[in-house]
TrEMBL record:
PANTHER family: REDOX-SENSING TRANSCRIPTIONAL REPRESSOR REX, REDOX-SENSING TRANSCRIPTIONAL REPRESSOR REX 1. Residues 79-177 form the CoA-binding domain. Residues 16-55 bind DNA. One of its GO terms (cellular component) is cytoplasm. GO terms for molecular function: DNA binding; DNA-binding transcription factor activity. The gene is rex. This is Redox-sensing transcriptional repressor Rex. Belongs to the transcriptional regulatory Rex family.
Length: 209
């Protein structure tokens, strides 16, 4: 990335651009103007051009951007691998919803397999193999770095096992306090907190009107 300090808001939009660009590529689009991309991602063209400027001179006025080139640059800068293999721990309601969605190929790869303690949930679900959690160490794909946690029991023990298998990134839907060592990244997804934030922000909007 360039030497410029990239604002946090800009960094948060980069994965949005990458996902849209991959969809466009799959549809046969080779070049795109900022105005056209804006209609896809619902972000102002001026914001897109400013965000892209942090990555260097990527396009020419009136000529647009090369879609393949943009994808290549975003892959490099975000450290994203199209073939990233993600594992899911927990094939209950949340896990099934994630497996059914499984559109990670537009961003970082796909859910390669899942694990669950319940035999009734094991087998193949939505085209994804679901293994017994007891076989975790045997079934984790080679080179896998990312795991999604959608379980309610033995959470810390499971995390410790995942880390021992080489997992360095965790997406956490458990809402539990998890201890992780240095070198492992944890991202918690808390829907309740997000709703609380939205209520607070919408209340403020009503006050300002």
């Amino acid at each position: 990335m360039t030497e410029k300090n990239v604002p946090k808001a800009t960094l948060q939009r980069y994965p949005v651009y990458l996902k849209a660009l991959r969809k466009l590529k799959s549809s046969g689009v080779e070049r795109i103007m900022s105005k056209e991309l804006a209609s896809v991602v619902n972000i102002e063209p001026t914001t897109i051009r400013r965000d892209f400027s942090f990555l260097g001179n990527l396009g020419k006025q009136g000529y647009g951007y090369d879609v393949n080139r943009l994808i290549e640059i975003f892959n490099q800068q975000l450290g994203m691998d199209f073939d990233e293999k993600i594992i899911l721990v927990g094939a209950g309601n949340m896990g099934r919803a994630l497996m059914k969605y499984n559109k990670w190929d537009y961003v970082v790869g796909e859910i390669a397999c899942a694990f669950d303690v319940n035999p009734d949930r094991q087998g193949v679900r939505f085209g994804i193999p679901v293994y017994d959690i007891a076989d975790l160490e045997k079934k984790v794909p080679d080179g896998c770095r990312i795991a999604i946690l959608a379980i309610s029991e033995n959470i810390q023990q499971t995390v410790d096992r995942l880390i021992a298998c080489g997992i360095t990134g965790l997406v956490d839907f458990t809402h539990e306090h998890i201890q992780i060592p240095k070198g492992v990244v944890l991202k918690s997804v808390d829907v309740v907190s997000s709703i609380q934030e939205l209520v607070f922000e919408t209340n403020n909007l009503n006050v300002e009107r």
